[in-house]
Every structure is written in structure tokens, then in C-alpha cells.
Amino acid sequence: MLELYHASMSVCSEKVRMALAEKALEFKSHLLNLREGDQQTPEYIALNPNAVVPTLVHDGAVIIESAIINEYIAESFPGTRLAMSDPLSRTRMRVWWKQLDEGIHANTGVISSALAFRYQMLQKPKEEIDASFAKMVDPVRRARMRDVLEKGAESQHFAPAMRRFDKMLADMQSALESGSWLAGAEFSLADIAYSPYVTRLEHLQMSWMWDRRPNVADWLSRIKSRPSYGESHTKWFAAPVVKIMEERGRAAVDQVKRILSL
Question: Per-residue confidence at 105, pLDDT binned at 50, 70, 90?
Fold first, then answer.
């Protein structure tokens, strides 16, 4: 019995759903509305003290943190092999994961909120906004996201975030020179892990960032052609959320290009 607590367009939820889809695993869905604070209820925090999604429950055992969940899925179930077959390639795979936790994931929240999501939040009463920030477990994240909410793309965090994504794409372009997939010749959890982040850039109208990086464009095309992408990503896209990302992202293209000196 698999149960997944997730959110429709959460990047971490997307990569766990993709691993499950690659293994053709069915799960009982518990869909959380992050805008309404479902992840901050006492019941959910009892499962996941970090108050984030996703959380996987397998026969009563609770697994948190998307990279750990995906490694558990790769090791526990038959079907498509998702971990690399040799130690060196597995090491490369884990190096890709590590970079997500060392800044890329946090920067996803910065650019998404600065360009799009802040407009949804600003429609709420100040008391509700303050209460939402007060519930954030991590004080560093709380301060960062408040600055982004108040200043948008003028936040001190926005330009560094965009530069980090530019480096991510450059690293991907380079890695794909020597193999079809990020960690080498085999499709792996590394490719699953990065698919939501490149998709988020695409939703924010930043696909021009890989115009000069054909390996990344080809990689994304092959990712999208996998049936698991439709089951884990496309199926769950929320049209109103995608619309605001597209509209606000399109309006910021010139500013982002200036940041990247393009």
C-alpha cells in the first residue's frame, strides 16, 4: 500500500510522482493545497515535521525528502531501473541531487514567487500573510521569502537565483556532451530530479535560456516523450497557476536577460 501526500505543481512532488510512474506504481493520493496551508496542519506535521511535500507512506512506514523517497522507490520495487548500474555513475547521479539541496531548490522558490506567486499572496489580507510566514519552520527561508514577496524581481535574492539557474543549464549542457543522460548513458534518478526544475523555467517563459544549449533542449524533449512525464507532470498542471507564470514570466524576459548580460 502506497500513499503519497503531494501538491499538484510542487517540483518535489513532480519528481516523486515521476519515479512512481516509471515503476508503474499506483498510489493513494492525498493532494495538499499549499496556498491554503494544508502542509502546516498538526496532522500533516505529525507525518512530516518539516511541513513540506511530498511524503510517502509505504505499508505504514513514513519516508520524507524527495531524493530519499526516490532512492527508496528505485531500490524497493521492480520495473524500470532508476539507479545507475556502476558505482562511478551512481556517484555522478548523487552529485546532481546534492546541487538541488545546495541552492537550486531554494532558488526555484525565489524566482517562482518573485515573478508570479507573490501576486496571488498579495491578494490576501495582511494578517493572513503574516500568519502564513509565522508558520514557516525555517527562519532563513521565512526571511528570504518575505523579502521576495515585498520586492519581487527587485529582491536581493532574485538576480543570484537567476545566475544559479544559468549555471545549472550550462552544467547540464556540458554533462550531456558525453552521454545521453545527466549521469551518463542511462536514464536515472538524476534526470527525474531535474525535470521539474527545467519545466518550471519553461513555464516562466525562460526556454530561451537553452536556445544556445541544444543538448538541454534535446534532453528536455526526450524527458517529455516518456509516458511517466505525462503521468507525473502534465496530468497535474493547474491551468490558472501555469497562466500566471507564463504571463508574469513573459513580462520579465528583458530584465532577466539584463541580469544574465545577454
Answer: very high
Q: In this structure, what is the dihedral angle of CA atoms 21, 68, 167, 155, given to the nearest 10 degrees?
A: 100
Residue 155 has what DSSP assignment? S
* Residues in CB range of 18: below 8 A, 6 or more apart: 192, 195, 228, 229, 231, 232, 233
CATH number reported for the structural domain that contains residue 52 in this entry: 3.40.30.10
Residue at 119 is within a domain: yes
C-alpha cell at 140: 532563513
Q: What are the tens digits of pLDDT across the range 28-52?
A: 999 999 988 899 899 999 999 999 9
CATH code for the domain in which residue 141 is found: 1.20.1050.10
Is the separation of the CB atoms in 213 and 169 below 8 Å?
A: yes
Q: Packing angle between helix 126-134 and helix 139-151, nearest 10 degrees? A: 150
